[in-house]
Amino acid sequence: YLEEVLSVFLAELGYSEIKDQLAYCLRELAVNAKKANTKRAYFIEKKLDLNNASDYVEGMKHFKEDTLENIQHYLQRQKDLGLFLKVVFHAKDKVFTISVLNNVEITKIEQIRIFDRIARSRAFSSMEEAFATVLDTSEGAGLGIVILILMLKKIGLDDDAFRIDIEAGQTVATLSIPFSE
User: Is pLDDT at 56 greater than 60 in this prediction?
Assistant: First the structure.
């Protein structure tokens, strides 16, 4: 559904040719936001503190395996905890933004991991190079953000087009596509 909405926006703006790249980025940001919410539900259930380095390491040992095996339980836990994600499309003054927010704050550990992936993405000129390098397997392959940055490069943008912020207790991941460029 979100990809269809994205298609309509881009068609209206006259930029349908970048739909596939932006759809990938949208999916990546939405999956990351959902994973962040799942992580909160998991850590709460395991009585671990996400902001404590040793608790983080302990929780991440089995996070991926436990949540994949029992995803319906953790989706329900997210609902019970009032965790959600929201997607906003906005076009103004030749800039199109896609924002994906979830109602939890990103931790310092998570921020460092994301900024590390962005920095690493600068070294790759193609997706083949990125796939040949496994960056981090504790939460996933660690390539999602790297590929997102490569998708932005493919449409002529650099990593400045992507940012992640904390606003009013929420984590907001934003892609800004300046059509003038």
Answer: yes
